[in-house]
TrEMBL record:
Keywords: Membrane, Transmembrane, Transmembrane helix. This is Uncharacterized protein. Pfam families: DUF6622. The keyword Transmembrane applies. It comes from Colwellia maritima. The chain crosses the membrane at residues 6-25, 37-57, 63-82.
Length: 106
């Protein structure tokens, strides 16, 4: 076990503790700008596209299936995961997001 930890690159621990801190921050209610909400989903879409591109290349089949998966994921996200406790402040253009322990556990 000690060899496993001693041979683990330092950046792995940095990423792990950064994710722990970010998960803990999300346990508290916070106000965030609307455009901030879109950063992670857009980044994940870009990483997903490059993952498919690097493995399968750009063909009609792979891009078609990727787009179908993107549409299905979007529909499921809107239907199932839309948080009903989020409040929008129009004058500040900010969202009040309730805290949740789920991101920390994930």
């Amino acid at each position: 076990m000690s060899q496993l930890i001693s041979h683990t690159p330092t950046w792995v621990f940095v990423v792990f503790f950064t994710l722990l801190v970010l998960g803990y921050v999300q346990t508290k209610e916070r106000n965030i700008k609307v455009r901030t909400v879109f950063i992670l989903p857009i980044a994940m879409i870009i990483f997903s596209f490059f993952g498919v591109y690097s493995v399968f290349g750009v063909t009609t089949l792979t891009m078609g299936l990727w787009i179908i998966g993107l549409i299905i994921t979007f529909i499921l996200g809107v239907k199932l995961a839309y948080p009903k406790l989020v409040l929008f402040s129009k004058p500040d253009n900010k969202l009040t997001v309730p805290g949740s322990w789920a991101p920390l556990f994930l």
